[in-house]
Design a protein that fits this description.
Pfam family, one: NAS
CATH superfamily: Vaccinia Virus protein VP39
Structural class: alpha/beta
Oligomer: single chain
Number of helices: 8
Number of domains: 1
EC number: 2.5.1.43
CATH architecture: 3-Layer(aba) Sandwich
Low-confidence stretches: none
CATH topology: Rossmann fold
Function: Synthesizes nicotianamine, a polyamine which serves as a sensor for the physiological iron status within the plant, and/or might be involved in the transport of iron.
Distance between the termini: 40 Å
Number of strands: 7
Strand content: 5-15%
GO molecular function, one term: nicotianamine synthase activity
InterPro entries: Nicotian_synth (IPR004298), SAM-dependent_MTases_sf (IPR029063)
């Protein structure tokens, strides 16, 4: 490991110690500062292969991904309630601190998608949409303006919060649907979608992620597109990594690794 990588890993481990000793991960000035420092550290341009790190650091990475996932869920939940308290919530969606990242990511994913779709999809599924389904909202508002979005989440309270954001909007309320379900129990329904998005936080462990992908491979329509989010380099301290060779049953069409403030890599694959 070179000097630059050592500094990066040292800083990540230091932040992990601070984050893991917090009483809770609810949004607060201190919590937000720590996660902002972590994101800035992990988006620095230092090339690193996290799989080659020592066992201790790999264990820290695994725990850190879970803490990040938990904190992200709490942050989204907090802002979903806050934004929904306004009249016309969708006019206030930019109050979410990482909204500009979602605008960039949505634009990027749309560009990648449209290269591989013969026509604009009529029905899209988003698996793991959460209380603040920003990807669906951004894509439905700016890019896929006639498409219906079916959002799946295992948590009923996440879905009811998400519904509160779009229910008063005359357009999105007609095109956005919320299903409380574990995707592992959805089979025939998956055949209806031309495109399926799999959220980064579905399957935090490699095995769970592999099971979800395997389930989608079995039940998606042949020729349908799967869009997944992964992480590359130091960003892999924040999110689980999907190796394109893990996508059994799919033909990988395109992989994009961002170098700006967007965190997630994007993988597009087509079901055989």
């Amino acid at each position: 490991m070179d000097y630059q990588q050592e500094i990066l890993v040292g800083k990540v481990c230091e932040l992990y110690d601070e984050i893991s000793s917090l009483e809770n991960l609810n949004p607060s000035k201190h919590v937000n500062t720590l996660f902002t420092q972590l994101v800035l550290t992990c988006t620095s341009p230092c090339p690193i292969d996290v799989t080659k790190l020592c066992k201790r650091v790999l264990e820290i990475r695994s725990k850190l991904i879970k803490l990040c996932g938990k904190a992200e869920g709490l942050l989204e939940s907090h802002f979903s309630t806050f934004i929904a308290s306004h009249d016309n919530p969708l006019n206030h969606i930019s109050l979410f601190p990482y909204y500009s990242n979602y605008l960039k990511l949505g634009h990027l994913e749309f560009d990648m998608l449209i290269k591989h779709c013969n026509q604009v999809p009529t029905k899209v599924a988003f698996v793991g949409s959460g209380p603040l389904p920003l990807t669906s909202i951004v894509l439905a508002s700016y890019h896929l303006r006639t498409t219906c979005f079916h959002n799946y989440d295992i948590d009923p309270s996440a879905n009811s919060k998400a519904l509160n954001l779009v229910s008063s909007d005359p357009d999105l309320s007609k095109r956005m649907f919320f299903h409380t379900a574990d995707v592992m129990e959805v089979s025939n329904g998956l055949k209806e979608y031309e495109v399926v998005f799999l959220a980064a936080l579905v399957g935090m462990e490699k095995e769970e992620k592999a099971q979800a992908i395997d389930h989608l491979a079995k039940h998606m329509a042949p020729g349908a597109i799967l869009l997944l989010r992964s992480a590359h380099g130091a960003r892999a301290f924040l999110y689980p990594v999907i190796d394109p060779c893990d996508l059994q049953g799919f033909d990988v069409l395109s992989v994009f690794h961002p170098t700006d403030e967007v965190i997630n890599s994007v993988i597009i694959a087509r079901k055989y």
